[in-house]
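Form P-L/3: holo structure prediction, ligand calcium ion.
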Amino acid sequence: MCRVIITRNRSVAINDRGALILLQLSFMYYMFVSFSLLYWASTTTGSPCDRLFRSDVDKNGTFTSPGYPAAYGPFMNCNYEFRGHGRERVQIIFTDFVLHHPHDDPSEKPHHPWLKQSCDGADRVTAFISVGGNKEKIDDFCGSATPRELMSNSAVMSLHFHSTTVSRGSRGFKARYSFVSNFGITTGEQISSSPCAFRFNSTTSTNGTFWSPNFPGFYPRDTECHYFFHAQVGERVKIVFSYFDIEGMIPCGLTSASDFVEVSNFMTVDRKLPRYCGLQKDLKMESDGAFFRVTFKSNDRFDGTGFFASYQFTPVADAVTITRRRSSSPASSSPYPPGCILLFYLLAYLIS
Ligand SMILES: [Ca+2]
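OUTPUT (holo model):
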C-alpha cells in the first residue's frame, strides 16, 4: 500500500517534473520568440537611409535623398532627424528639389505661387516639429517646386522622405541644414539675454532693413521676436513694411487666434496703435519720440511668410526746427528793423 503510494507519488513527481521542464521550455521558447520579435522590430523600424544630425557635432551641413543626383529607389522611407539644444532653431533650405509626381502635368500645376500642388499619391518630403512634446506635421512638399525655407519652433525637427513605386528618374532633393540662434535675422544687434530680440541704434546706422524669423520662408510657430529702435534726441523712427504676410484676422490677437505684428512707442502696449495681421501693402508708421518697438508673435497653428521692412532714423520735421530757430532769435521776432529800435532807444534817452 505504502509502495503504491510511493510509486504514485513518484509518478506524480515525475509528471510534475516533466510539466516543469515543458513549462521551462515553453517559457524559453516564448522568450526567444519575444526577443526575436523585438530584435526584428528594432532592426526593421529603422531604415538604412535614416540620418541623424546633432548640433554638438556640426552646426550646419547638407543632406540629400538617397543616391542624389541619381534617381532614388521605390518604396523608400527615410527619416532625417535634427537635434539642437538651448534656443537653437533648425533651419532647412532646399537647394534642389525634383520629386516624381503622378500628375506631373504643367496644366495641373497651380499657377498662383501661393497655391500648392496636392501631394496625394506623390513622392514627398514631410516636415514635422515638436508641439507640447508631440510630433506635429507642418506640411508636405512634392513635385518640382522648391519648398521655401523651413524653421523649427524648438531645437528639434524632422523630415520624412517617402517614395512611391516608380520614380521615373527624378533626381530627388538636396538641402542645407543649420542650427541657428539668430532666427535667420542678421541685422541689428541681438540681445543675448532675450530669446529673440534685436536692437537698432541710430548711432550705429541711420537706416537699414529687418525681417521676420526665417524670412522669406515660413516663420516658425510659437515664436516671439522684438525689434527695438533707439533714435537720438530730436530724431524719430520711420518704419516701412514693403512685404507683409502674417496669418490671422482682425483684431489680430488671441480672440481671433492670429499671429500679429505689434508696434509701440513704449516697451508696453501702445493703446493708440493697432496690431497688424493679414496681407498688407506699404504699411508705414512713425514713432512719436526717440524710441520705437516692433514685435512679431506667432501661435501654434498655421503659418505665413512674415514681413520685410526698412527703418530710418530721421530728424524731427524741418519746419518745426525752423520755427524753433526763429522763436529763439530776438532780432527775427521783432516786427521793426534793427535801426528803428536803436533810434527808439536814443529818443527815449534824450527825452528822459
Ligand atoms: Ca499661426
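COMMENT: Residues 247, 259, 298-299, 301-303 surround calcium ion (CB under 6 Å).
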